[in-house]
């Protein structure tokens, strides 16, 4: 009769532990894959938000420029009205 170097109980315990480790490895690989997908989605969202920021910044700059021109025009018109009213000759 041949005897083994490892008892049957230790062998079975090792087999059970191996199954658990393989299962854990599969679960972790799935989790890593899921997290990588999440990272990719978040990166795309960041890219989209950065584009929105660029567009909004451009719109804000254009609006500010238009506002500045409108304010200048208003000041010019107010100045003209002031001088017209100041230099207006009274009617007899």
List the main descriptive attributes of the protein structure presented here.
92 residues; 1 helix; 0% strand; 87% helix; mainly alpha
Q: Could you name the ranges where pLDDT drops below 50 across 5 or more consecutive residues? A: none
Specify the number of helices: 1
N-to-C order of helices and strands: H
Global morphology: rod-shaped
Largest β sheet strand count, sense and barrel closure: none
Query: How large is the radius of gyration?
Result: 39 Å
State the end-to-end CA separation.
141 Å
- Return the domain count: 1
Description:
With 92 residues, the protein is an all-alpha fold. It has one domain. The chain is built from one helix and no strands. It has one helix at residues 8-87. The longest helix is centred in the middle third of the chain and has 80 residues, at 8-87. It is rod-shaped, with a radius of gyration of 39 Å. The termini are far apart. The mean pLDDT is 92.
In short:
The protein has 92 residues and is mainly α. The chain has one helix and no strands.
SSE inventory with pairings:
Layout: H1 8-87
């Amino acid at each position: 009769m041949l005897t083994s170097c490892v008892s049957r109980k230790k062998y079975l315990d090792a087999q059970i532990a191996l199954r658990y480790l393989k299962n854990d490895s599969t679960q972790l690989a799935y989790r890593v894959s899921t997290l990588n997908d999440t990272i990719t989605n978040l990166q795309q969202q960041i890219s989209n938000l950065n584009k929105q920021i660029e567009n909004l910044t451009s719109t804000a700059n254009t609006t500010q420029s238009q506002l500045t021109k409108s304010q200048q025009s208003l000041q010019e018109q107010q100045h003209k009205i002031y001088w017209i009213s100041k230099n207006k000759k009274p009617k007899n």
